[in-house]
């Protein structure tokens, strides 16, 4: 997404430069909460392309939903991708907009309107670790490189399985931003 949206990448780079300056030091746990905009970009990417597009749950006891009952013993499927593309929750859902994940905007939505790692007591136990890892990896990478792509969001074809994946991959160019000092 950063390769497609150079303006957003520029904002991420400014934030990274503010946190790290021109040092080549390692990323620390104390740095990660300061990368607020980067986290918004990651969350918006996960909204548009959740790793698990469908979440399955076994129903232990009858559940009443409006005028239908899901009987105990059945399997319910929640389409996280469809939820994340619901215009009532995310206006203009196909537009990449990290501001959807500002604290104010998050507070205005239901807590289960964003489910890249599922939700509730059976959500992914690694979700916090995944976010820390993504922020660490991206901030380390983007301190040295810039990403470019001629791809357009509307050209990305998806294949839905247990995981959602691109059919054609993601063509990008990577260019050195800052020479690495050893």
TrEMBL record:
Residues that hold heme according to the record: 124
Cofactor(s) the record lists: heme
Any one GO cellular component localisation term in the record: endoplasmic reticulum membrane
Membrane association type: Peripheral membrane protein
An example molecular function term from Gene Ontology annotations: monooxygenase activity
Pfam families, A to Z: p450 (PF00067)
Database matches in InterPro entries: Cyt_P450, Cyt_P450_CS, Cyt_P450_E_grp-IV, Cyt_P450_sf, Cytochrome_P450_Monoox
Keywords: Endoplasmic reticulum, Heme, Iron, Membrane, Metal-binding, Microsome, Monooxygenase, Oxidoreductase
Family, per entry: Belongs to the cytochrome P450 family.
Protein name in the entry: Cytochrome P450
